[in-house]
Amino acid sequence: MKYYIVIPAHNEEAFLEETLRSLSAQTLPPKKVIIVNDNSSDGTEKIIDAFCNKHNTYLKLNTSSSKEHLPGSKVINAFRKGLALLDDEYDFIVKLDADLILPKNYFESIASVFNENKNIGLAGGFVYELDSNNEWTLNHPMNKKHVRGAFKAYTKECFKSIDGLRNAMGWDTVDELLAQYHGFEIKTLDELRVKHLRPTGKAYNAKAKLMQGEAMYAMDYGFLLTSIASLKMALKQKNTKTFYHNMKGFFKAKASNLQKMVSPEEGKFIRKLRWKGIKGKIIA
C-alpha cells in the first residue's frame, strides 16, 4: 500500500535522528515524508536537512508557531501545514511524532491490517518507555483499543470521513470516536512495540493541566462522563490532582462556552458509546 507521513518537530535534536533512521529502515517504506520544523531553536533543522539530502522522499517545511510545547493545537497546526503539501494519492496517512523508534516491520504490518479488513480505518501499535530499572515497559491508557497520538495511521476513507484532525487537546480521542461514528473500526497490534524516547507529557508546561477537562467538554462528554473519566485517570496516575484539574478545566470551558469539537448528533453518539463501554466493563 502507498502511504504518506507527516512529522511535526519542535526542538527534537535529541531524538529526531533515531526516529528518521527507524523510518528509513522500514520494510515497507513511505512514498512521501513531510517533516515540519516548527519554530525549533536547536539542531533539529540540520538533522532534517541531512535526511532530506539522502532521501528524495523526504521534504522539509519550516514554519513558525508558538514556542510553548502544549498538547493539541500546536502539533496539529504543524501537521495540517505538512498535510497541505501532499496530494490524495495515498492509501493511508500517518501522523508521527519525532521521538520514536519504530520496529522495522511497523508500516508493513499496518498496511496488512488495512488490506485484510476494509472496515478498519485507524490502526497502530503500543508505546514502550524506559522505566526506573532502565527496561522498556508498556505505557498505555486503560483502553487497549486506543491508538496513541504518537503514531496514528488512517485509511484515506476514514481520514476524509472524520474531516481530518481537530487542532485542540483531545484530537487523538475524538478522531477515534468520530471514526466509529462513521462506521470504521480501530485496530491495535500488541506485537508492534514502539520505543518512546521522551516520557509522555514531560515537555508540556503548566497550562496543559486544565486542557484534558476542556477537551472532555469540547467532545460533549457532559458532567457525569467527565467525572467518571477523570476519576479513572486520577486512579491510573495515582494523583488526586488530576481529577481536580480535569474538573476545573471542564467547568472553565463550560463557563466560557467553549466551542464543541463535535456536532450535537456526534456528541449524542459519543456519550452513548462511552456509556456502552462503561457498562460493558461493569458486567465483565
UniProtKB/TrEMBL annotation:
<keyword id="KW-0808">Transferase</keyword>
<keyword id="KW-0328">Glycosyltransferase</keyword>
<dbReference type="Pfam" id="PF00535">
    <property type="entry name" value="Glycos_transf_2"/>
</dbReference>
<feature type="domain" description="Glycosyltransferase 2-like">
    <location>
        <begin position="5"/>
        <end position="154"/>
    </location>
</feature>
<dbReference type="GO" id="GO:0016757">
    <property type="term" value="F:glycosyltransferase activity"/>
</dbReference>
<comment type="similarity">
    <text>Belongs to the glycosyltransferase 2 family.</text>
</comment>
<dbReference type="InterPro" id="IPR001173">
    <property type="entry name" value="Glyco_trans_2-like"/>
</dbReference>
<dbReference type="InterPro" id="IPR029044">
    <property type="entry name" value="Nucleotide-diphossugar_trans"/>
</dbReference>
<protein>
    <submittedName>
        <fullName>Glycosyl transferase family 2</fullName>
    </submittedName>
</protein>
